[in-house]
Amino acid sequence: xxxxxxxxxxxxxxxxxxxxxxxxxxxxxxxxxxxxxxxxxxxxxxxxxxxxxxxxxxxxxxxxxxxxxxxxxxxxxxxxxxxxxxxxxxxxxxxxxxxxxxxxxxxxxxxxxxxxxxxxxxxxxxxxxxxxxxxxxxxxxxxxxxxxxxxxxxxxxxxxxxxxxxxxxxxxxxxxxxxxxxxxxxxxxxxxxxxxxxxxxxxxxxxxxxxxxxxxxxxxxxxxxxxxxxxxxxxxxxxxxxxxxxxxxxxxxxxxxxxxxxxxxxxxxxxxxxxxxxxxxxxxxxxxxxxxxxxxxxxxxxxxxxxxxxxxxxxxxxxxxxxxxxxxxxxxxxxxxxxxxxxxxxx
Length: 347
Prior knowledge:
- The protein is mainly β.
- The chain folds into 3 domains: 24-155, Cupredoxins -  blue copper proteins (Immunoglobulin-like), CATH 2.60.40.420; 165-174 and 217-343, Cupredoxins -  blue copper proteins (Immunoglobulin-like); 186-214, no CATH class.
- The chain contains 2 helices and 19 strands.
- Strand 18 (298-304) and strand 19 (312-320) form a beta hairpin.
- 36% of the residues are buried.
């Protein structure tokens, strides 16, 4: 048997590693990839004409033609296989936000993988753990702004808390002008909201895009308030809300009028329950909260401009079964308990 010197071995193995990184397929899968408890999801990233419910149609970039992308639910410990087909005009990836996965499955372009080229297929595969509320999204350019995101829920083997209903609430900021995404900022004239840097750049190079898109629509689960589907509850129920903020540039201060919220999880991790009146949630954050339905009526779900009154931007509706009135029973905040990291204690 011919012996290979150490330096030759390192040189050859390094070359082989570079060759594998340049391939369009993922590296060999870990042992758990061949487990029996495997769930396979197929996602196609493509351009889709979209209407958020405000009558303004624009081109969004979507998974499977819907906004947000399909909700993925797996059980703790299952192996999740996602087959991504790229039908976009540029490269793309999927990042599994908050979920610890192997480096080669993390979906960061030019760091953990090369972008998946137009027309190509890439297979993501990993063990889904720990349980919690996560989301998936493109990590390439402005693709998240254009609509490439969806909820990822890893259900625990055994629920530690009981509830009667569960809803996923995705908070979204949208740039819908002139096609959405970066094109939303290709405006011929200076408009309110540009900012000083944007105006200076426009003067130097008329017609150039601004540094940031102009967000002009806010939605829950892909629909603005006027078209949003109400969250229905029955008196006496305990409701679990998985609140996710995939927005690129918007922090929310969420209030469900007439109801306090009990925070049970932050970014997928269990907490000692904390009751708040409003929930402040930053970009990329996720909170699991519980709501006790003990105040029948039709109530706004707001993004507050402040924490002292009912004023704010309505995003959605909480309505009790049997309520026929179209009027809202909104009230003013008597207390202003807001979540703060210093208040949280790990369970």
